[in-house]
Amino acid sequence: MTTQAMPSQLATLPLTPSEDLLVLPGPALLADVASRRVSGGIGSGGDPSLRDHRARWGEPTMLGLDALHALTDAAGVRGRGGAGFSFARKLATAARHRSLGRAPFVVVNASEGEPASAKDAALARTSPHLVLDGALIAARALGAREIHVIVPGDRPRTRGLLLAAVAERTTDPASSGVRWLTHTTQARFVAGQARAVLELMAGRPGLPVTAWEPEAVRGHRGRATLLSNAETWAHVGLLALEGLGRTLGRGTAAEPGTTLLTVHAPGRPVTVQEVEHGLPLGAVLPASARSGPILLGGFHGTWAAGSDVVDLPISAAAFRERRLALGAGVVIAPGLGACAVAWTERIVAHLASESAGRCGPCRNGLPALATAVADLAAGRPGARAEVARLCGLVEGRGACAHPDGTSRLVASLLQAFPEEVARHEAGRCGARQHLIESEAVR
Amino acid sequence: MTAPTTATRLRVDWPSCDAHGLCHELLPDLIGLDDWGFPILPEHVPADRVLEARAAAKACPKLALRLLQP
Predict the structure, then answer these.
(1) Which residues of chain B neighbour A358 with C-beta distances below 8 Å?
(2) B1, B18, B23: best mutation site toward chain A, by most A Cβ within 10 Å?
(3) Which residues of A are less than 8 Å from B15 in CB distance?
(4) CB A340 within 8 A of CB A420
(5) Which of A72, A125, A369, A392 has its CA at a distance of 20 to 30 angstroms from the CA of residue A168?
(6) Is A122 in contact with A92 (CB distance < 8 Å)?
(7) Does A12 touch chain B (CB under 8 A)?
(8) Cβ atoms within 10 A of the Cβ of B35, count?
(9) Strands B9-12 and B65-68
(10) Residue A296: is its pLDDT beyond 90?
(11) What distance in Å separates the CA atoms of residue B31 and residue B23, rounded to the nearest whole number?
């Protein structure tokens, strides 16, 4: 029963974004990536210039609204905000809410606030013009005259590459009649949230506010605004450039195409890879990281035992069925021996400190929840019931999803690791022993 | 984009709410308060309570409470 003190697994907790990435070649968006580490700037991950992009793909064919809607609907293009909202439906909503003399806006959100996610950073390194082509095609289809590109303030290299790519567009004949504008977010977890981005565009602090209507109905300057994340725009761009058939040939019949994942596993840099829907989750993890706890969907995501999810297909439907969330595609696998309770304690403390502090239940509830989770980890009596109560109390009570995501994370800890939680309640951290036992049972 | 709602609801503009608690005082059986004095709202407002709910929304000193009707 005696176990040696483990080296701290928490050393790899990605609370701040890393720009030292490994971007692996993929089937579609990352098809042209040479497998190598892209820690440097332009040139280290292939040439992302507009000239090379055009040499590879030619001029983008502009599509009418109906054609773009049909194309993105058939390809099943979805948002990456967790709900997996259909891009085609959002496009249709924005189109319906246009009015004479009030041109809609197109927004590229390339400022993922989740520090553990690096998919936007990977696209900026490898194929920023796929992203911008997607936005340009949509702007033409909708009659938008401005494309706003939101770049991350806390990832200087990514920001620099995106600004350089946008600068190339301003002199590109294909952009005539369209203005490209850029905005830099503050380094903050909630700054990438859609309403926070609209606030930033309006010249106010980029913090979440209450959304009474979807931004596609009433967004920037009160007009219809089509806002999507960089990956979604890259899928739109690629679809328009290579046609529907190629996308339908990837993934599954129910969920065609690919998705980007950011994988954190011991002993290697943060890895961004593109997978076809339907691939088992274990395929993106090194063998050493397939056991032990796995955090799916990042800090607003859900915990699962590795052995329970390595065979799970990477698919929105499969995850939904298991009540797991893939969110923006972050997979954190700290490996056998990591204590999910201790990790959650650290993450919740961080999320509490990242509250914008504007909404009472979040400002008060997240620190209280962080304290309760720390009490649980330390084995204080009654802590588990208090954790469960506070999870229910903060959920759905804020302008943005920060309290909901934090509550989801903590609730999933109680759900996925009841025995480990019980050991902590009894004053012991049994992560290593517990996981060895469950492996032996198989 | 949002599913059509069939019931009247109350919604809080959370950044505006300052936990004055007036809504709870006016409708104690419908609106609770959390540990910090912020309102806990019901899923739906029963049809026979809509007038009272509207009055509570109007009474909010921060105009942070809204009645949303289908």
Answers:
(1) 14-15
(2) B1
(3) 208-210, 358-359, 399
(4) yes
(5) A72
(6) no
(7) no
(8) 12
(9) antiparallel
(10) yes
(11) 7
Spatial CB neighbours of A174, under 8 Å, sequence gap ≥ 6: A59, A60, A136
Please give the DSSP secondary-structure letter assigned to residue A245: H
| pLDDT tens profile B6-17 | 789 999 999 999
Contact call for residues A216 and A206 (beta carbons, < 8 A): no
> What mean pLDDT, rounded, does chain A reach?
90
Tokens of A255: 């969920």
Tell me which chain B residue has its CA closest to the CA of residue A87: B1
CB atoms within 10 A of CB B5: 11
Considering only alpha carbons, which residue of chain A is nearest residue B2?
A: A214
Residue A440: what pLDDT? 39
ipTM: 0.92
Contact B1 A362 (CB under 8 A): no
Cβ pairs bridging A and B (under 8 Å): 50
Residue A37 has a CB neighbour count (10 Å cut-off) of 14
B9-68 topology per CATH: Alpha-Beta Plaits (3.30.70)
Give the residue carrying structure tokens 């893939």.
A326
Task: Give the amino acid at A196.
Answer: A
Q: Is the CB of residue A310 less than 8 Å from the CB of residue A285?
A: yes
In the sheet that A225-229 helps form, which strands lie side by side, from edge to edge?
A179-184, A146-151, A105-109, A225-229
Q: Summarize pLDDT for B34-57 with one digit per residue, the tens.
A: 999 999 999 999 999 999 999 999
Query: How far apart (Å, rounded) are the C-alpha atoms in residues A365 and B40?
Result: 13
Q: What tokens were used for A55?
A: 């040499």
**Cβ–Cβ under 8 Å, residues A138 and A88:** no
For residues A184 and A81, which has the higher predicted lDDT (pLDDT)?
A184
Tell me: pLDDT of A6 over 70: no
Interface contact A397, partner B, CB < 8 A: yes
Is the pLDDT at A36 greater than 90? The verdict is: no
Q: What region, left, alpha or beta, does residue A272 occupy, with left being phi > 0 and alpha being psi -120 to 50 degrees?
A: beta
Q: How far is A142 from chain B (nearest CA, A)?
A: 18
How many other C-beta atoms lie within 10 A of the C-beta of residue A222?
10
Residue A43 has pLDDT above 50, yes or no: no
Q: What average pLDDT score do residues A190-211 get?
A: 95
Residues on chain A touching B62 (C-beta within 8 angstroms): none
Q: Contact A20/A269 with Cβ under 8 angstroms? A: yes
Calpha distance A191→B41 (Å, rounded) = 27
Query: What is the phi-psi region of residue A172: left when phi exceeds 0, alpha when psi lies from -120 to 50, beta otherwise?
Result: beta
3-state secondary structure of B68: strand
Q: Taking the CA atoms of A133, A138, A141 and A144 in sequence, report the sign of the dihedral they define.
A: negative
Give the CA angle between residues A106, A107, A112 to the nearest 5°. Answer: 160
Contact A272, A262 (CB under 8 A): yes
